[in-house]
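Deviation from plan, reported transparently: 2-acetamido-2-deoxy-beta-D-glucopyranose complex.
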Amino acid sequence: MQKKILLFSFICLSSLISLAVGDKSCVPRMYNHSSVVCVCNSTYCDEISQLNALNRGQYVLYSSSMLGMRFEKHGGLFNKKQYTHKKKNTFWDWFKFNIRGLGDSTLRIHRDKTFQTIEGFGGAFTDATGINILSLSKQAQKRVIDSYFSKNGLEYNMGRVPIGGCDFSTHPYAYNMQPEHDVYLSNFSLTMEDFNYKIPLIREAMNVATNSIHLLGAAWSPPIWMKSNNRIGGPSSLIHKYYQTWADYHLKFLQEYKKNDVNFWAISTGNEPTTGLVPVNTFNSLGWIPSRQAKWLVNNLGPTIRNSEFSDVLILALDDQRFNLPWWLNIMAESNATKYFDGIAVHWYWDDLTPISVIENTKQLFPGKFIISTEACVGDKPWQKEKVELGSWSRAEKYIKDILENLNHWHTGWVDWNLALDKRGGPNWFDNFVDSPVIVMPENDEFLKQPMFYAIGHFSKFIPRNSKRIFVERITGDIDNVAFLRPDGGISVVFYNPFDSDTKVSIVEDHRGYIEIEVPARSIHTLTYW
Ligand SMILES: *[C@@H]1O[C@H](CO)[C@@H](O)[C@H](O)[C@H]1NC(C)=O
Ligand SMILES: *[C@@H]1O[C@H](CO)[C@@H](O)[C@H](O)[C@H]1NC(C)=O
Ligand SMILES: *[C@@H]1O[C@H](CO)[C@@H](O)[C@H](O)[C@H]1NC(C)=O
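Because the crystal trials were delayed, the predicted structure below was used instead.
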């Protein structure tokens, strides 16, 4: 009976709107991992268009799965009957309801109970990203950028840009390396990496994006003459007499990019200050203890930026792992640094070991500061011998779980690491290879869109900037989910079935009715309706 209703609804909607308009399907290829990659080249790439402003009562569901669905679209109509929760009475009902993974889920959407406002989703314009995209033909390069930023792609609206070099560069560098001890940065200029690998691609992305791209800048290492250890990596600190010089360095970077028509939304106080304290990962870094960083922020970086033409550029604290919360900020606050940062940037690498409750504590302690995830990738752990796993669904699943968890706990955005890498997971001068949602194969003029690409896309495409997270009440079951009220009045609900068995999800909203959806094993869905 239910199946018939769904089928009927589907036919009705199909006659109202054509679901497949503008879409091009994935050209799948299987490597020896759990799912497929979608192959793109100079003449073909899969595309996904979004159906907006549906009539009341209609919905569209976009689905991707381990078995190979990639943004498959299905349309339908709400069942207008008032949803009535069927009473659980048999032992089997009780069993299904209580054992995770077997029970059907019913979720009630409350659009009037709102939480944080979304800033966006994106990835990083590293030197490696630029080198890899530029290794393809012009037409294929355009397809990579379109895949991420355009109306028929993931509609990314954020980008992170290293200030100078990082490990995903071909050699270690910073600006103004010479002359040494140049307090006034008399020789500060952008490098060929900025002009070739970063600026052109950022501008290309800005041209095709559906919304303005909010850029985040972060510095990895100063020129070595500013550092206590006189090296690009390893345990270090900033030499005190260069505190103002290091703040001016950030200002000069913003000025030089502005000359090239690239403006920043925010800068952070520096990438991973704790990495620069320990003798592991000795690539580009600068170590800080929070009390010293607070002094630099209060006396140097904060006033330098606030009193400049870039007074609107936001400043993000931490830009490091979740396990540094909230103690890092508590120390910053004791040093009166709170007024100089606007948000808190968090990296995902040890999220498995740090309970999400630290984010809740942080939000309570700093209610006026937004929280945003600024770096994530898989294949980073030394025991992960295969850095790039072409077609891995479990890696997509890591993205899905982390994004769901973070969005459900105050995060206003989620920014991935390298937008594109090669099949080794580089280039990286420190051989710190990792995975990426897009892997380039220049020998065939192809690029491969991995399951991770679609994982982040299920959020980025359907949760535009200024969407507000809304409350989802679990009536039965416990499928992971998150829901948003969009600025265009639409609702986007994302949910994920991590189990090897199919399940059923009902979405209920008072005054609209309910929808019943058959959800295959290991699949992610975004439901949109108005
Ligand atoms: C690109 O891919 C499409 C779809 O697989 C294929 O038909 C076409 O021949 C490819 N083009 C080139 C230039 O290889
Ligand atoms: C200024 O920097 C360039 C590299 O960008 C370097 O070749 C040159 O020697 C530097 N000038 C001085 C005076 O150190
Ligand atoms: C922070 O500000 C308070 C009040 O102005 C002052 O008493 C205190 O010394 C300041 N702390 C630091 C570390 O500067």
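The two ends are 26 Å apart (CA to CA). We consider this an acceptable substitute for the interim report.
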